[in-house]
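question for whoever is on the cluster today: can someone run the full assembly for these? two chains, 317 residues total. i dont have access anymore since they changed the login thing
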Amino acid sequence: MAGIVYLTRLSGYFIGLQLRHISGIKPILEALPGCAFMAILVPAVRQGSLSEIVAMACLVILMWLTNNVVISTIVGMVVLFAGNVYLS
Amino acid sequence: MSPYKSALLGIRSSADYFISTFLFGVMFGIAASAVGLLQWQALLMSASSFTASGQFVALEFWQSPMPYGTIALSVALVSSRNILLGMAMTYHFDGHSLKRRILCLFLLNDPGVVTSYVMPDEVDRLGYVTGYGISLMISWLISTLLGLNVAQLFASFDLGSVSFAGPLVMATMMILFAKGSKSSPFPWFVSGITSLALFELGAANYLILLISVASGVIATILQTQRING
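^ ran it for u. tokens below:
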């Protein structure tokens, strides 16, 4: 896992040195992480419990409105813990 | 500015993200403990990988028997943005030895790269990004350790949903990514819908990941062709 991550860091730099002038590949590389996040997130939410889905909804709305990672994450975690106690 | 002084500047500039990273690290420790990672395993993962998103993704698939291929594939896909970061730094690390560049690329990090662009020209980018990375690495390791120990306290309160911290953190990153990216979210939606359909069909995790990302890539290519006429 560490090797894979390091390889992505190294390869980007060295690919950049060699292939920087090629156009057309940049949009695909830009889309890849988002696609991977969605492919993992959607099934995780789909099989989540009620408290998990509520926590996710709170976090997403707050994050979208405030763009504040710290506050959104804290609220999401509090809702998750509280929901686990009161909604389960 | 010398690489050393630039590294110190990177450390000083990282205060905001030090806090965010600390928060993620605590949650990673809690989530890692919830899925059954031993303390040394979680700390080794944090020290060697130094990738919040990749580590949370790995936890999603952490089960027995271990799906090594799925974990490797998902970590590679989520970490693929590092390729872009590396490419973005192509000309900024000039003037340093190859050995130093290879060593410092281990600490390549998103906020360090982004904030380095607003630094004055005299700042050495390699030193700055490395200093930033050292600061975040320290935050990441201390908070992981703290999270692992806090998790034991949480376990006694039966907070079973703590493993969902991973998807929560991924969601914050996804939104940051979506709001900061200049590219269209259309391919991401295609990937999300595909993954949902495949999940409902009972497909294996690695197939969901591969086919969903492939569908997103196809959507990107089609979209690019359409824009270019």
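summary bc i know u wont read the tokens: Chain B is about 75% helix and 0% strand. Residues 183-229 of chain B form one domain.
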